[in-house]
Every structure is written in structure tokens, then in C-alpha cells.
Amino acid sequence: MRLASVQGRATLLVDEQLVDVERASGGALSSDPMDHFGELEALSALLDAEDSQPAAAVVFDAPVPRPPKVIAIGLNYRKHAIESNMPIPDEPVVFARFSNALCGPTDEIVIPAGCDQVDWEAELVIVMGRGGGGIAAADAWPRVAGLTCGQDVSDRREQMRGMKQFTVAKSYDTFAPIGPHVVSVDEFANPDDLEISCSVDGERVQNSRTGDLIFSVPELVEWVSRHITLEPGDLIFTGTPEGVGMGQDPPRYLCGGMVVETTIEGIGSMRNVCVDG
Ligand code: ZN
């Protein structure tokens, strides 16, 4: 199942057709995407809905518009830790992002004036379903609603300031595009091993597989939920593979006019154009 948000309304994608959840259910189901992540199965009755329209020309919003929490994981691929000159962690590196940073899969990324070290980070994003606390890794996948693509756009200058400022440097408005859809876990043959890539101006700069994550999706859910109760619609950005701009020689960064494309196998692509703020 693919759940999207179109003009703020929960929308299923079925064979390239859009099904508006509230209308197709005759008002029985909410139009708010946030109301469905805890029980995506409730939408399955709509997969045969007659009331649909072509998806071709529509603009998708962030599929999870108001997550209760946005949790992010740093240094979760070995080669990215090495290119960042950081030790390979033996426990997850966790930080927070704020929801103001979220935007849609085709929205503009605004590069603030004076920020000359803004970098890309393609990431697999976990969208929590039922959630809960104290979830064992073996029980994690059934608590996840689905997966989507994300960017963890980062102002490296701010990120590396002083004692490190991950939360601020990765929470500027528009720095967290997600989408295009939330794809339910059952849609993937193997949700633990998906190709992930990022292109900048058409050049493939990141290309890896989520099977190379140091801490897998189930391990992250277990580790985070040990002390933090996960709620429906919470997001976990799982970390980026190697190939960020900071790690190149010489380093390369984003500026107005550049195009960032983020693709994950089985989910789809986002295309975000950078603009000068
Ligand atoms: Zn990241």
C-alpha cells in the first residue's frame, strides 16, 4: 500500500490512480494522513475504490505532515563514518530534528544567505505504525507502518560548531524533504536491503544499499524505543551512506539552482531544486 498526501489529504496510490481516503470511504475514514499510520490495514478496503483520478499531474506533499517526533541517526554506514573522519559507532548516534524542516518530495530546498557548506544526505526514513516502548528487534517490523525517502540536508559549518550542533544544522526550514509516498512494509520483498542513491545535477554522488546499515531498522527501533515511546507517524531518519559533499576532494556543497534527486528501491524518487534564501 502507498499512502500519500495531496493538498493535505490522505490519498492512496493504486495503479497510478489516486484514491482520496475520506471521499472513497464515504466519510468513514479521516482525511488527515496522520490518523492512519497506526493502522494502515484499515485502508485496505479502499484499494478497490471506484472513485479515483489519475496521479500524473498531481503535486505530492510530505506524506507525513506532522510527525510527533523526528528522530535521526548519524554515522550509520561504515564508509560514511570513515569519510567523516569519525569512529565507527558501537551504539547508534541519535539526535533530533524539528518538524518545521519537513517539506514535500518536489519542494524547493532553501539555502539561507551566507550558508556556503550545505550538504546532501540521502536517507531511508522509517515511518512508525503502532509503535510502543521497549520493542524487541524481532518484533520491530510489525510496529512500522512503512518506509519513505528522505534528505537530511545539513549546514556543515553549523553542524561542526563547538560541541557539534546536529539538531540545529539539520532543522532549517525545508532541510528535510520526505516522500513521495509511505510504502507499507509488506510491499517490499526484503525491506532490510534496498538500493539507495542520490544525484546532484544529474551526477550520481551516493549509491549504496540499506543492507549496509551498521544498525538495521529493527535494531534502531529496539534501541530508540528502549527509553523513548514511539508513536504512530514518528519518523526515524536512518543515516546516510558515503558520498556526501563534505567527503569529496575538494568538498562540494549545494547552492541555488542545483537539483537533488533521492531514490530508494521500491519507494520512488524525490526531486528537490535548491534556491537561494
Ligand atoms: Zn543524516
What's the structural blueprint in terms of helices and strands?
Layout: E1 2-6, E2 9-14, E3 17-20, H1 21-24, E4 53-54, E5 70-74, H2 78-83, E6 93-97, E7 102-103, E8 109-111, E9 118-119, E10 122-128, E11 144-151, E12 154-155, H3 156-159, H4 166-169, E13 176-184, E14 195-200, E15 203-209, H5 217-225, E16 235-237, E17 259-264, E18 268-276
Parallel strand pairs: 5-16, 7-13, 8-18
Antiparallel strand pairs: 1-2, 1-13, 2-3, 3-4, 5-6, 9-12, 10-11, 10-16, 11-13, 14-15, 14-17, 17-18
What this model shows, in words?
With 277 residues, this protein is mainly β. The chain is 10% helix and 33% strand. The protein has 5 helices and 18 strands. It has helices spanning 21-24, 78-83, 156-159, 166-169, 217-225; strands at 2-6, 9-14, 17-20, 53-54, 70-74, 93-97, 102-103, 109-111, 118-119, 122-128, 144-151, 154-155, 176-184, 195-200, 203-209, 235-237, 259-264, 268-276. The strands form 3 sheets. Strands 1, 2, 3, 4, 5, 6, 7, 10, 11, 13 and 16 form an 11-stranded mixed β-sheet that branches. A hairpin with a 3-residue loop joins strand 17 (259-264) and strand 18. The longest helix has 9 residues, at 217-225. It is globular, with a radius of gyration of 18 Å. Residues 72, 74, 121, 123, 152, 237, 239-240 line the site of zinc ion.
